[in-house]
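Researcher: Here's a chain I'd like modeled. Treat it as a single chain, no partners, no ligands.
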Amino acid sequence: MSGYTSERLVGVVVAITVWAVVVALMLGAAVGSFLNVVAYRLPLGLSLLWPGSRCPDCLTPLGATENIPVLGWLLLQGRCKHCQRPIAPRYPLVELLTAGLFALIVLKVGVTVVAAGYMILVALLLALSLIDFDTLELPHELTLPGIYLGLGWQMGVIFGDSPLIGLLEGLLGYGVGVLLLDTIAVLGRIYLWLKVRSGALLSWQPVAALGVLGAGWGLGLFFSPQVPPWAVGLAFYGAVLLSWDTVFILRSFGQKPILEEADELVALGGGDVLLAGLLGSWLGWQGLLVALAVGFLTGTVYGLGARLSQRLGALERFAFGPFLALGGVVSLLWGNILIDNYLGFLGIT
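Model: Modeled as a single isolated chain. Structure tokens:
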């Protein structure tokens, strides 16, 4: 009797899991369809909600069946029914990718609040990746809200019983991400300058960063014996920097963006720095390090391959945001396993 009951219980669990995965697939495909809209319209300053989906060439509104994620593209055979212009296969691929990631999240953490948070972060990273791939820009309209969502995630979910510790963890991750990427950006500009030409490279930012870090370290000495001073120092640095970035970004809304000159020697863009901060606010500083390791490894492999094959020039830029986003997804889903294996390899338990 007990065996029969166990079999029925297993059957119920399997049925619920299958149902949850199917719902996640459908939700992911729908969200992926919306992400395609975001990636196309946001850089152009168009409304994300109006008008409805339409052909980008003839601007004819799509019908109900044409709007079905993936299936609509297949029914149309990849062409607009009205003007017969081809519809890029990227649209159904993004929908399939989002659906697959949402299903993987459900299989990983179940139908939980954590799964909902993971889905929000994955959707943000996919939208930013698509826009960066198209425009070499990471819009503040997505990165800044994403950072504050990450802080809320740490306070309300990860450290729900200790919101202040969650806030410190989120700010610490943000501060580490921005500090590391800013340092790499400065060193990269120095390298490019030495390789190409002379000019002014350093600004007040590294010096200001050291001053804020020092002030934060001093606060950390008196903050709590349970929190290391270096952690409070970096969290304080992250809070000051995030406040500065927020004011600067909000003041710049509605103004013509200040674009970098095409020949300016830039190793990493400001959007990449903010994206690292976003990842840190969601993943914490340890998860951020995993994300950066994966991002820099894959980005380096791509960059070297593209330059060796002459698809990119010696100083030609490419979108680095998608590689950081890839690192973020890997860290989100398998970061703890990678950290444990790495520490085990080093003999640290």
